[in-house]
Amino acid sequence: TQLLEQSPQFLSIQEGENLTVYCNSSSVFSSLQWYRQEPGEGPVLLVTVVTGGEVKKLKRLTFQFGDARKDSSLHITAAQPGDTGLYLCAGGHDYKLSFGAGTTVTVRA
Amino acid sequence: DSGVTQTPKHLITATGQRVTLRCSPRSGDLSVYWYQQSLDQGLQFLIQYYNGEERAKGNILERFSAQQFPDLHSELNLSSLELGDSALYFCASSVASGDGYTFGSGTRLTVV
């Protein structure tokens, strides 16, 4: 059983469309991070959120941390083929980071 | 280049054998983490070292062991290998626990 549940598992959209990926847990986290992983490579950190209700924007990506620090969402506006990848959320507790199973995003040109 | 170096990149070995995976963390990072990634399990935390000391343990089998040396590089030893140990093994580093992780490119282990 995953500590962090991500949905949807797969997402395929057309270039220019918007998408949202969700990350939910019954546990409270001191911080939550989002990573993107491309085939054959390690995950790359996109953002860290630490405060309940926090919203961070990174160009076309918007990250939100839930008020209770148990859930988070990643919204991509006007998706591009370069956004294709596996998006992973990770929650920090007890000196370690636990990862969700990830959402595979495919953006078609 | 993320700054975290993992060697080798690929490893093919037979069941029952022992292998050692090596990781050099990003310069200045004191924490090293090992993760196993397989298709059905996702990224599973194995073990963390901080400045040479074991800090946290996850789902690490007894056949697996790790250490962090004084120069902060780390090694993950996998013994009595089974087919099910085939996976990508990632090393990550951070300045301190709770910071964002920098991952290496991984070692793809295939046990035949």
Q: Would you kindly provide a written description of the structure presented here, covering whatever features stand out?
A:
The complex is a heterodimer of chains A (109) and B (112). By secondary structure, chain A is an all-beta fold. In chain A, 0% of the residues lie in helices and 56% in strands. Chain A has strands at 5-7, 10-14, 19-24, 31-37, 44-49, 55-58, 61-65, 71-76, 85-93, 96-99, 103-108. In chain A, strand 9 (85-93) and strand 10 form a beta hairpin. Chain B is built from no helices and 11 strands. Chain B is 0% helix and 54% strand. The mean pLDDT of chain B is 94. With 112 residues, chain B is an all-beta fold. In chain B, a hairpin with a 2-residue loop joins strand 5 (42-50) and strand 6. The N and C termini of chain B lie far apart (30 Å).
Q: Residue ranges of chain B: pLDDT <50 for 5 or more in a row? A: none
Overall 3D shape of chain A:
globular
Total helix count of chain A? 0
* Proportion of helical residues of chain B: under 10%
The total strand number of chain B stands at 11
Secondary structure blueprint with pairings:
The complex is a heterodimer of chains A (109) and B (112).
Chain A: E1 5-7, E2 10-14, E3 19-24, E4 31-37, E5 44-49, E6 55-58, E7 61-65, E8 71-76, E9 85-93, E10 96-99, E11 103-108
Parallel strand pairs in A: 2-11
Antiparallel strand pairs in A: 1-3, 3-8, 4-5, 4-9, 6-7, 7-8, 9-10, 9-11
Chain B: E1 5-7, E2 10-13, E3 19-24, E4 31-38, E5 42-50, E6 53-57, E7 64-68, E8 74-78, E9 87-94, E10 102-103, E11 107-111
Parallel strand pairs in B: 2-11
Antiparallel strand pairs in B: 1-3, 3-8, 4-5, 4-9, 5-6, 7-8, 9-10, 9-11
